[in-house]
Amino acid sequence: MTYNGFTKPSARLVSQEIMATPNITLHENYTDLVMVWGQYFDHDTDLTPKTDSLCQERCVQKAPYCFPIFASNNDSRLADDGCISLTRSTRVCNLEPREQLNSVTSYVDASTVYGSTEERAMYLRDLTTDLGHLRTGISVNVYGKVSKTLLPFKHQMAQGCNRPTMDDTGIPCFFAGDVRANEHLGLIAIHTVWVREHNRIADELKLINPHWNGETIYQEARKIVGALHQIISFDHWLPKIVGSKGMELLGSYNGYEPLVEASTVNSFATAAFRFGHGQISPTVVRLGADFNESSDGNLLLHDAAFCPFRIVNEGSIDPVLRGMFGTALKNMDPAEIMSEEVTESLFKLTTHVAFDLASLNTQRGRDHGLPGYNQWRQFCNLPIADTFDDLANEISNAELRQKLQDLYGHPDNIDLFVAGLVEDPWYDSIVGPTFTCLIAHQFRSWRTGDRYWYQHSGEFTSDQIIELEKHSLARILCDSGDDIQQVQNDVFQRAIYPDGYQSCDQIPSMNLTIAWMDSGDDDCT
Most buried residue, 249, 257, 326, 434, by most Cβ within 10 Å? Predict the structure, then answer.
């Protein structure tokens, strides 16, 4: 089909011509944890299930299931295979036009920790005691010390785990609230920290209120963890992404509005919030307690995917955590959009043909039928572009605009994911004006349309809110890492060790005793 007189370019060709880069520049102000937290947080709010099909086996456009990404003419990597397979997203019943599903809760509710179904939530709980704990797994030896417990194992065979490579002796995938927890070591580490944090909070609540049973402790700890996810994501992380202009678009919280739709928007999940793929570094850095490279060394990203054995056998989670908050973020640069590690080698150890994340995202947007760039410019009060020169205010690089013209022919045809990443950063944001607009719109809807938002009247007392807002991800890493001793006060903010680092004893913490002590007297106000 033609659009405005032009056919859509191959998603793979777009990746090769515009998105992929062999070079990366590091961000001056932010740490790699900005990227990892963004991915972890995204997994709390959306997961599009895929159709179960045979698309992995052949390059066939098998409607309505398979939508392969075909090799371009100068594609040496895919010359033998011909395509990268893509299975289409599951559709809602048989509706036409096709609509997609979200199989996790849209709300910012720590479903990454607790799951999005009652069945998964119950399976994740430790019901062998009356302490309100989540299930945990084994402890491991870390340089002569015993680690805190890790996540429980998922003993069923899962893609990527249990494979007999390198030093792996058949370590299965970890089991967590979200099915994507094993995608890379950073995600495993963050998931582990939050399970430990839940159990730490549960133990404190039990000490404060010994008359509480396990059910009460679990629910109250879960409520606290959910609030901390909201505070960290909205107050500590989001301003670094959308900057001052984006926070103005978000506005202040004015209470719950029942008519606001809080579902995760398709264009947000499928394009705008995938901006973080442009922040992915090709290297997973692992640091020891002295913030030098750990004895097990750094890894290329593809060697850190679906590798739970590296946590079990190579120092547990602390080296990965230090690597994330002790290493600079890959800069979001329109001239260096996505590292070749994710366009040429993604999941290369677990798939027959290595994926290309830029191609996958572009093709997924087409699978979902996302409107083109110009329609989102109009939505965000930007002028509609009739020519590619009309994009100069948002895409200042003339060579890049020419490449877009050569590929797409008309501004209406540009895929939203591609356009959002080639826009210049907007003022002090990381992303351009279109993605800033879409991200702020989504975050506002999540917050305003959530009747369990932590600031909503009746959810927490004013004293409890004060204590919750004292807490931070830095404090959580100190409390729930294996032996994290020093951090920045803001672990998203880059600092060169030892400058800017503090002892964990100096990092503020919420005091549960002040606001969560319960007299046990139902008549006591």
Answer: 326
